[in-house]
Specification:
The complex is a heterodimer of chains A (about 240) and B (about 240). By secondary structure, chain A is an alpha/beta fold. Chain A has 11 helices and 10 strands. In chain A, the strands form 2 sheets. A 6-stranded mixed sheet of chain A has the order 1-2-3-5-7-10, sandwiched between helices. Chain A has a 4-stranded mixed sheet with strand order 4-6-8-9. Classes of the chains: A alpha/beta (about 240), B alpha/beta (about 240).
Chain lengths: ~240, ~240
């Protein structure tokens, strides 16, 4: 389902298997647990890279699991459960005491895209993979912290509208133009991962104090952090 | 003064007559009423296009009507009245359960530009028409919801400064570069309207649930919605 490896300074979090990497309660707790592991093992110069196998980075919440509840109320409850339990994953990424990079091997939709955007840097492929907020097409309003994420991370009104109100599947080049991702320069998964490893290594070389890094990161997104109950309470010795 | 027509899925709101389409209390009440009508007739696939006739989309509030009150206090009160009564128009657009497109036939200034920016998409002409926030030139400070609109809809600090603090009359090409409008590709009012109809038909074909659309839209602009007294909470039945 997901693994955490260490390669020198780099933590590599991988969503394994050639499937849609849907976020289901089990996946969500695994990811959370691995992020906590990375946090506990972090040192100056640590960097996290998150990626996945196959065609999908993640296609969002496990809607099939929600529907398997057998009733409308049951489905809504399961959806709500996933939305609520995913919030700590986002919080953990904002709180992580090291730079974070998402290396998108493929499609990122809905909470899968939220997961990507929770990283400091997002790289995607030029040739394959789209970003897609499916909510408007599915008839689902946005959870509050999703809306706050977009308000925080996506600068222009036009980009927000294109992502959230058009049902568009946004490819690499457009995602860069809209300022949603940092790079869509590579034509293969290997190319993307290599580029993120290279960025990871140059960030690691700075040997930053991770707690200070996280504190500065959180200070950029006060509204979102308040909603995620992520507090900023350090005073480091410079 | 203004009309609402239905063409298939599209609602077409037109500020009629070859004049400045200034917003005085009557015009404001009429627009509000027509938006209420569009809302009540909304269904999956509905889209609103707002446009004007003549050289102006709208040149803002009716300052002449304000001055006609005969005294400085009277003028200030009338201006205040227009500012307050226009707020529900902006709120109604942000709340409208369908995608909204402004097709600028000509100049949009002050409250007229606010009306345009209240739409999800703004198309203007390439060859004619400017966007102009006149407040700094006239010596009027900004109503709270105007400032919130500019903060919400205009992304960069430099663009916001160009719009509000320079007294500049911004033409199509620059408006696109600043990220204020989506398109300034057409050299005629008909071209703009045709392009907006083209976009509207694509959006209509999605057959979105309008209440969910409006809910997502409002969640993008929480600060503005709060100032306008709009709530963004609905629980829709998802298409699972």
């Amino acid at each position: 389902m997901c693994t955490l490896e260490k390669r020198g300074d780099l933590f590599l979090l991988t969503l394994t298997g050639d499937d849609e990497h849907r976020f289901h309660p089990d996946t969500i707790s695994s990811v959370l647990s691995l992020l906590e592991q990375a946090k506990s093992q972090s040192t100056r110069g640590s960097v996290l890279i998150t990626t996945a196998h196959g065609k999908f980075f993640s296609n969002g919440f496990d809607l099939a699991w929600a529907q398997a509840a057998g009733s409308q109320t049951g489905a809504v409850n399961r959806m709500h459960q996933m939305v609520e339990s995913f919030k700590p994953v986002i919080a953990a990424l904002f709180d992580l005491p090291m730079p974070t990079i998402a290396a998108l091997n493929g499609h990122a939709a809905a909470s899968g895209l939220m997961f990507a955007l929770s990283h400091d840097y997002v790289f995607m492929r030029n040739d394959r993979g789209v970003l897609y907020m499916s909510e408007v097409d599915l008839g689902l309003p946005l959870p509050d912290y999703f809306a706050a994420m977009f308000a925080a991370k996506i600068g222009t009104s036009i980009a927000k509208r294109e992502l959230l109100l058009s049902g568009k599947k946004i490819k690499g080049e457009e995602a860069v133009a809209l300022g949603i991702v940092d790079s869509a320069a590579h034509d293969s998964v290997e190319g993307v991962v290599e580029a993120t490893v290279s960025l990871g290594e140059s960030l690691a070389a700075k040997k930053w104090n991770g707690e200070v890094y996280a504190s500065i990161r959180k200070s950029l997104y006060p509204g979102l952090c308040a909603m995620l109950s992520v507090t900023d309470k350090i005073a480091a010795s410079p | 003064m203004c009309t609402l027509e239905k063409r298939g899925n599209l609602f077409l709101l037109t500020l009629t007559g070859d004049n400045e389409h200034r917003f005085n209390p009557d015009a404001i009440a009429t627009i509000l009423s027509l938006l209420g009508q569009a809302k009540s007739q909304a269904k999956r696939g509905s889209v609103l296009i707002t446009t004007g006739q003549g050289k102006f989309f709208s040149n803002g509030f009716d300052l002449a009507w304000a001055q006609a009150s005969g005294s400085l206090t009277g003028a200030a009160e009338r201006l205040h009245q227009m500012v307050e009564s226009f707020k529900p128009v902006v709120a109604a657009l942000l709340d409208l359960p369908m995608p909204t497109i402004a097709a600028l036939n000509g100049h949009a200034a002050a409250a007229g530009l606010m009306l345009a920016l209240s739409h999800d998409y703004v198309f203007m002409r390439k060859d004619r028409g400017v966007l102009y926030m006149s407040e700094v030139d006239i010596g009027l400070s900004m109503p709270d919801y105007f400032a919130a609109m500019v903060r919400s809809k205009i992304g960069t600090s430099a663009a916001r400064r160009e719009v509000l603090l320079s007294g500049k009359k911004i033409r199509g090409e620059e408006a696109v570069a600043l990220g204020i409008v989506d398109s300034a590709a057409h050299d005629s009012a008909e071209g703009v309207v045709e392009a907006t109809v083209g976009l509207a038909e694509k959006l209509a074909a999605k057959k979105w649930n309008g209440d969910v659309y409006a809910s997502i839209r409002k969640s993008l602009y929480p600060e503005l919605c709060e100032i306008l007294g709009l709530k963004a909470t609905i629980f829709a039945t998802p298409k699972l």
